[in-house]
Every structure is written in structure tokens, then in C-alpha cells.
Design brief:
Radius of gyration: 18 Å
Number of strands: 3
Strand content: 5-15%
Structural class: mainly alpha
Order of helices and strands: HHEHHEEHH
Length: about 100
């Protein structure tokens, strides 16, 4: 269907996924932790109206204590060890609601 639409010049069907704010926050954290810049804490607060610690304070404190996350210049980063255990770290950013 997709290829047929492209070959005939028709616009292919789009699939649009609507994310809840909770889902969007989780995605934001996952994506930024995978990047070199980490999670920019001021941007997170600007986007979601509360600091990251409001939503994830307990988890971040635990991950810092385990030396899986570190904070520098208002950015939260995976440590080398945290990157090796990335799935575990990301799992901590899944919120039950």
C-alpha cells in the first residue's frame, strides 16, 4: 500500500501517535540520556512546569548513589557505568500512574 501510494503519486497514509504528558516526559528523558548533552534540567522544567526532581527525585537520587547518573552544569548524564546499564537506568524513568 505504501509503495503503491508513492508510485502513483498519492500521499501515503500517516500514522500519528498521540503521547500523554507522562509518555512525553519518559521519551524526553530516554532520548536526552542517550545524547552527549544529557538531560538539560532547565529545559525539562520549562517544558513540563516542574523540575525533574518533582517527577523523578527519588529515582535520580538512587541512580546518582549507584554512580549511574551524574550532574554537571544543570545537565544530567549517564556515567560510563550507567551507559553500560542503560536499560536499567531508563526503566527508572517509567512512571506508574
Amino acid at each position: 500500500m505504501y509503495e503503491k501510494d508513492l508510485l502513483t503519486g498519492s500521499a501515503p497514509a500517516e500514522e500519528i501517535e498521540e503521547l500523554t504528558e507522562k509518555d512525553e516526559m519518559e521519551e524526553y528523558c530516554f532520548l536526552h540520556l542517550r545524547m552527549k548533552e544529557g538531560i538539560p534540567l532547565d529545559d525539562f522544567e520549562h517544558r513540563y512546569g516542574h523540575p525533574l526532581s518533582f517527577w523523578y527525585g527519588r529515582q535520580v537520587a538512587m541512580l546518582k548513589k549507584q554512580k549511574l547518573l551524574t550532574e554537571e552544569d544543570r545537565h544530567l548524564f549517564l556515567t560510563y557505568h550507567g551507559a553500560a546499564l542503560g536499560n536499567y537506568v531508563f526503566e527508572q524513568f517509567l512512571r506508574d500512574e
